[in-house]
Amino acid sequence: MSHRPRRSALYMPAANVRAVEKARGLNCDVVILDLEDAVLPELKDEARAAAVAAVRAGGFGRREVVIRVNALDTPWGEADLAAAVQAGPDAVIAPKIRNPGDVATYQSRLSAARRETRLWLMIETPQAILRLDQIAGVGGRLAGLVVGLNDLAKEMRARSTPERTPFLPALALIVTAARAHGLLALDGVHNEIEDLGLLERTCGQGAEIGFDGRTLIHPSHLEICNRAYTPPQSEIAWARAVIDAFEAPENAGRGALRVAGRLAERLHLDEARRLVAIAEALASATVSAA
Description:
Blueprint (H helix, E strand, L loop, with lengths): L7 E6 L3 H7 L6 E5 L9 H14 L6 E5 L8 H11 L3 E4 L5 H10 L8 E6 L2 H5 L1 H5 L5 E6 L1 H8 L11 H13 L3 E4 L8 H14 L3 E4 L5 H8 L3 H15 L8 E4 L2 E4 L1 H23 L1
Parallel strand pairs: 1-2, 1-8, 2-3, 3-4, 4-5, 5-6, 6-7, 7-8
Antiparallel strand pairs: 9-10
Helix pairs in contact: 2-3, 9-10, 11-12
Protein backbone atom coordinates (compact mmCIF):
# COMPACT_ATOMS: atom_id res chain seq x y z
CA MET A 1 0.00 0.00 0.00
CA SER A 2 1.21 3.50 -0.83
CA HIS A 3 2.11 5.68 2.14
CA ARG A 4 0.54 8.81 0.66
CA PRO A 5 -2.01 10.60 2.90
CA ARG A 6 -5.67 9.62 2.47
CA ARG A 7 -7.04 11.44 5.51
CA SER A 8 -10.04 12.91 3.72
CA ALA A 9 -11.84 11.61 0.64
CA LEU A 10 -14.56 13.99 -0.51
CA TYR A 11 -17.48 12.76 -2.59
CA MET A 12 -18.46 15.19 -5.31
CA PRO A 13 -21.49 14.67 -7.62
CA ALA A 14 -19.76 14.37 -10.97
CA ALA A 15 -22.60 16.17 -12.74
CA ASN A 16 -22.04 19.29 -10.62
CA VAL A 17 -19.27 20.92 -12.65
CA ARG A 18 -18.98 23.90 -10.31
CA ALA A 19 -18.55 21.66 -7.27
CA VAL A 20 -15.89 19.61 -9.03
CA GLU A 21 -14.06 22.77 -10.02
CA LYS A 22 -14.17 23.91 -6.38
CA ALA A 23 -12.73 20.56 -5.28
CA ARG A 24 -9.52 21.35 -7.14
CA GLY A 25 -8.74 23.92 -4.46
CA LEU A 26 -10.05 22.19 -1.34
CA ASN A 27 -7.79 20.74 1.34
CA CYS A 28 -8.75 17.12 0.75
CA ASP A 29 -6.43 14.24 -0.05
CA VAL A 30 -8.84 12.43 -2.39
CA VAL A 31 -11.60 13.71 -4.69
CA ILE A 32 -14.25 11.09 -5.46
CA LEU A 33 -16.24 11.88 -8.60
CA ASP A 34 -19.49 10.16 -7.73
CA LEU A 35 -21.67 8.57 -10.39
CA GLU A 36 -23.71 6.53 -7.92
CA ASP A 37 -25.64 7.75 -4.86
CA ALA A 38 -25.16 11.48 -5.44
CA VAL A 39 -26.55 11.44 -9.00
CA LEU A 40 -30.19 11.20 -10.05
CA PRO A 41 -31.04 8.57 -12.71
CA GLU A 42 -31.82 11.20 -15.34
CA LEU A 43 -28.36 12.74 -14.84
CA LYS A 44 -26.29 9.56 -14.96
CA ASP A 45 -25.10 9.99 -18.55
CA GLU A 46 -24.27 13.64 -18.00
CA ALA A 47 -22.36 12.80 -14.81
CA ARG A 48 -20.36 10.09 -16.56
CA ALA A 49 -19.26 12.45 -19.33
CA ALA A 50 -18.42 15.14 -16.77
CA ALA A 51 -16.30 12.73 -14.71
CA VAL A 52 -14.28 11.71 -17.75
CA ALA A 53 -13.78 15.36 -18.70
CA ALA A 54 -12.67 16.27 -15.18
CA VAL A 55 -10.10 13.46 -14.99
CA ARG A 56 -8.70 14.34 -18.41
CA ALA A 57 -8.58 18.06 -17.59
CA GLY A 58 -6.58 17.41 -14.43
CA GLY A 59 -5.67 20.34 -12.23
CA PHE A 60 -6.21 18.46 -8.96
CA GLY A 61 -2.64 18.87 -7.80
CA ARG A 62 -1.54 16.40 -5.14
CA ARG A 63 -5.08 15.05 -4.73
CA GLU A 64 -5.94 11.56 -5.91
CA VAL A 65 -8.89 11.52 -8.30
CA VAL A 66 -11.24 8.55 -8.01
CA ILE A 67 -14.45 7.64 -9.84
CA ARG A 68 -17.23 5.78 -8.00
CA VAL A 69 -19.22 3.85 -10.58
CA ASN A 70 -22.71 2.40 -10.42
CA ALA A 71 -23.01 -1.31 -9.75
CA LEU A 72 -22.79 -3.64 -12.72
CA ASP A 73 -26.35 -4.87 -12.18
CA THR A 74 -27.70 -1.36 -12.83
CA PRO A 75 -28.42 0.16 -16.26
CA TRP A 76 -25.34 2.39 -15.95
CA GLY A 77 -22.60 0.16 -14.50
CA GLU A 78 -21.07 -1.21 -17.69
CA ALA A 79 -20.94 2.21 -19.35
CA ASP A 80 -19.47 3.75 -16.19
CA LEU A 81 -16.65 1.22 -16.09
CA ALA A 82 -15.90 1.57 -19.78
CA ALA A 83 -15.71 5.35 -19.35
CA ALA A 84 -13.45 5.01 -16.29
CA VAL A 85 -11.09 2.77 -18.26
CA GLN A 86 -10.77 5.48 -20.90
CA ALA A 87 -10.41 8.31 -18.37
CA GLY A 88 -7.68 6.68 -16.31
CA PRO A 89 -8.36 7.94 -12.75
CA ASP A 90 -6.15 7.00 -9.83
CA ALA A 91 -8.78 4.51 -8.72
CA VAL A 92 -12.28 3.23 -9.38
CA ILE A 93 -14.66 2.53 -6.49
CA ALA A 94 -16.97 -0.45 -7.00
CA PRO A 95 -20.18 -0.48 -4.90
CA LYS A 96 -22.31 -3.27 -3.43
CA ILE A 97 -19.55 -5.88 -3.29
CA ARG A 98 -20.79 -9.20 -1.86
CA ASN A 99 -18.14 -11.81 -2.65
CA PRO A 100 -14.73 -12.39 -4.30
CA GLY A 101 -16.47 -13.15 -7.59
CA ASP A 102 -17.79 -9.59 -7.70
CA VAL A 103 -14.24 -8.30 -7.26
CA ALA A 104 -12.96 -10.54 -10.05
CA THR A 105 -15.66 -9.21 -12.38
CA TYR A 106 -14.64 -5.61 -11.74
CA GLN A 107 -10.98 -6.54 -12.19
CA SER A 108 -11.74 -8.05 -15.60
CA ARG A 109 -13.65 -4.93 -16.69
CA LEU A 110 -10.62 -2.82 -15.73
CA SER A 111 -8.10 -5.00 -17.55
CA ALA A 112 -7.61 -2.41 -20.28
CA ALA A 113 -7.18 0.51 -17.87
CA ARG A 114 -3.80 2.11 -17.37
CA ARG A 115 -1.62 0.12 -15.01
CA GLU A 116 -1.74 2.76 -12.27
CA THR A 117 -5.55 2.72 -11.94
CA ARG A 118 -6.41 0.91 -8.72
CA LEU A 119 -9.64 -0.73 -7.54
CA TRP A 120 -11.30 0.27 -4.27
CA LEU A 121 -14.32 -1.61 -2.93
CA MET A 122 -17.36 -0.37 -1.06
CA ILE A 123 -17.94 -2.67 1.92
CA GLU A 124 -21.63 -2.11 2.56
CA THR A 125 -23.35 -5.49 2.56
CA PRO A 126 -23.63 -8.22 5.22
CA GLN A 127 -22.32 -10.72 2.67
CA ALA A 128 -19.12 -8.70 2.26
CA ILE A 129 -18.58 -8.47 6.02
CA LEU A 130 -18.81 -12.27 6.28
CA ARG A 131 -16.30 -12.74 3.43
CA LEU A 132 -13.86 -9.94 4.17
CA ASP A 133 -10.68 -12.00 4.19
CA GLN A 134 -11.53 -13.63 0.85
CA ILE A 135 -12.52 -10.29 -0.70
CA ALA A 136 -9.49 -8.38 0.58
CA GLY A 137 -7.16 -11.13 -0.59
CA VAL A 138 -8.12 -11.07 -4.28
CA GLY A 139 -5.03 -9.06 -5.22
CA GLY A 140 -4.51 -7.61 -8.69
CA ARG A 141 -5.55 -3.97 -8.88
CA LEU A 142 -7.28 -4.14 -5.50
CA ALA A 143 -5.90 -1.42 -3.24
CA GLY A 144 -8.59 -0.24 -0.83
CA LEU A 145 -11.71 -0.91 1.23
CA VAL A 146 -14.25 1.87 1.76
CA VAL A 147 -17.00 1.66 4.37
CA GLY A 148 -20.58 2.21 3.21
CA LEU A 149 -22.29 2.49 6.56
CA ASN A 150 -25.65 3.78 5.34
CA ASP A 151 -26.24 0.79 3.07
CA LEU A 152 -24.90 -1.60 5.69
CA ALA A 153 -27.26 -0.19 8.31
CA LYS A 154 -30.20 -0.60 5.95
CA GLU A 155 -29.36 -4.21 5.12
CA MET A 156 -28.64 -5.10 8.75
CA ARG A 157 -31.80 -3.29 9.93
CA ALA A 158 -29.55 -1.69 12.52
CA ARG A 159 -30.10 1.64 14.23
CA SER A 160 -27.57 4.34 13.40
CA THR A 161 -26.65 5.55 16.89
CA PRO A 162 -24.29 8.50 17.45
CA GLU A 163 -21.74 6.11 18.95
CA ARG A 164 -22.07 3.75 15.94
CA THR A 165 -22.21 0.89 18.44
CA PRO A 166 -23.99 -1.64 16.17
CA PHE A 167 -21.25 -1.28 13.57
CA LEU A 168 -18.08 -1.31 15.66
CA PRO A 169 -17.38 -5.03 15.11
CA ALA A 170 -17.76 -4.61 11.34
CA LEU A 171 -15.56 -1.50 11.29
CA ALA A 172 -12.82 -3.31 13.19
CA LEU A 173 -13.06 -6.31 10.86
CA ILE A 174 -12.76 -4.07 7.79
CA VAL A 175 -9.57 -2.53 9.13
CA THR A 176 -8.25 -5.95 10.11
CA ALA A 177 -8.87 -7.33 6.61
CA ALA A 178 -7.26 -4.28 5.03
CA ARG A 179 -4.16 -4.59 7.18
CA ALA A 180 -3.92 -8.35 6.57
CA HIS A 181 -3.68 -7.71 2.84
CA GLY A 182 -1.90 -4.35 2.68
CA LEU A 183 -4.92 -2.31 1.61
CA LEU A 184 -6.15 1.21 2.29
CA ALA A 185 -9.11 1.47 4.72
CA LEU A 186 -11.46 4.48 4.67
CA ASP A 187 -14.26 5.03 7.18
CA GLY A 188 -17.80 5.92 6.09
CA VAL A 189 -19.43 9.32 5.73
CA HIS A 190 -20.86 11.55 8.46
CA ASN A 191 -24.54 12.18 7.72
CA GLU A 192 -25.28 14.94 10.26
CA ILE A 193 -23.75 17.78 8.25
CA GLU A 194 -24.18 20.47 10.90
CA ASP A 195 -23.12 18.33 13.90
CA LEU A 196 -19.40 18.97 13.84
CA GLY A 197 -18.97 17.84 17.44
CA LEU A 198 -20.22 14.38 16.56
CA LEU A 199 -18.04 14.40 13.46
CA GLU A 200 -15.00 15.07 15.61
CA ARG A 201 -15.87 12.24 18.00
CA THR A 202 -16.47 9.68 15.26
CA CYS A 203 -13.34 10.74 13.36
CA GLY A 204 -11.41 10.14 16.58
CA GLN A 205 -13.13 6.79 16.90
CA GLY A 206 -12.21 5.82 13.36
CA ALA A 207 -8.59 6.84 13.85
CA GLU A 208 -8.45 4.75 17.04
CA ILE A 209 -9.81 1.72 15.17
CA GLY A 210 -7.03 2.17 12.61
CA PHE A 211 -8.61 3.69 9.50
CA ASP A 212 -6.32 5.68 7.20
CA GLY A 213 -8.96 8.37 6.74
CA ARG A 214 -12.61 8.96 6.04
CA THR A 215 -15.00 9.59 3.18
CA LEU A 216 -16.94 12.85 3.46
CA ILE A 217 -19.95 14.48 1.85
CA HIS A 218 -19.38 18.14 2.72
CA PRO A 219 -16.35 20.47 2.53
CA SER A 220 -17.09 21.81 6.02
CA HIS A 221 -15.97 18.43 7.38
CA LEU A 222 -12.47 18.58 5.91
CA GLU A 223 -10.62 20.45 8.65
CA ILE A 224 -11.87 18.20 11.45
CA CYS A 225 -11.23 15.03 9.47
CA ASN A 226 -7.74 16.06 8.40
CA ARG A 227 -6.82 16.95 11.96
CA ALA A 228 -8.08 13.62 13.33
CA TYR A 229 -6.10 11.59 10.79
CA THR A 230 -2.89 13.63 10.81
CA PRO A 231 -0.27 11.81 12.91
CA PRO A 232 0.48 13.82 16.08
CA GLN A 233 3.92 15.39 16.26
CA SER A 234 4.72 13.27 19.32
CA GLU A 235 4.09 10.08 17.30
CA ILE A 236 6.19 11.33 14.39
CA ALA A 237 9.07 12.24 16.71
CA TRP A 238 9.00 8.79 18.29
CA ALA A 239 8.81 7.16 14.85
CA ARG A 240 11.93 9.03 13.74
CA ALA A 241 13.69 7.97 16.93
CA VAL A 242 12.76 4.33 16.31
CA ILE A 243 14.10 4.47 12.76
CA ASP A 244 17.34 6.12 13.89
CA ALA A 245 17.79 3.58 16.68
CA PHE A 246 17.38 0.51 14.49
CA GLU A 247 19.57 1.97 11.74
CA ALA A 248 22.43 2.68 14.14
CA PRO A 249 25.35 0.32 13.40
CA GLU A 250 25.64 -0.76 17.04
CA ASN A 251 22.06 -2.06 16.96
CA ALA A 252 22.40 -4.18 13.83
CA GLY A 253 20.60 -7.47 14.27
CA ARG A 254 18.83 -6.50 17.47
CA GLY A 255 15.13 -7.30 17.67
CA ALA A 256 14.12 -4.96 20.48
CA LEU A 257 15.41 -1.64 21.79
CA ARG A 258 14.57 0.94 24.40
CA VAL A 259 13.70 4.18 22.59
CA ALA A 260 12.79 7.30 24.59
CA GLY A 261 11.75 5.16 27.52
CA ARG A 262 9.52 2.84 25.45
CA LEU A 263 10.01 -0.66 24.11
CA ALA A 264 10.49 -0.70 20.35
CA GLU A 265 10.59 -3.99 18.47
CA ARG A 266 11.41 -4.52 14.82
CA LEU A 267 7.70 -4.99 14.19
CA HIS A 268 7.33 -1.27 15.01
CA LEU A 269 9.83 -0.24 12.34
CA ASP A 270 7.53 -0.52 9.32
CA GLU A 271 4.84 1.52 11.07
CA ALA A 272 7.44 4.12 12.04
CA ARG A 273 8.53 4.44 8.42
CA ARG A 274 4.89 4.76 7.30
CA LEU A 275 4.23 7.58 9.76
CA VAL A 276 7.36 9.45 8.71
CA ALA A 277 6.50 9.03 5.01
CA ILE A 278 3.03 10.45 5.57
CA ALA A 279 4.40 13.33 7.64
CA GLU A 280 6.90 14.19 4.90
CA ALA A 281 4.20 14.01 2.22
CA LEU A 282 1.98 16.37 4.22
CA ALA A 283 4.86 18.76 4.81
CA SER A 284 5.68 18.76 1.10
CA ALA A 285 2.05 19.46 0.24
CA THR A 286 1.98 22.39 2.66
CA VAL A 287 5.09 23.90 1.11
CA SER A 288 3.68 23.46 -2.41
CA ALA A 289 0.43 25.17 -1.42
CA ALA A 290 2.21 28.13 0.16
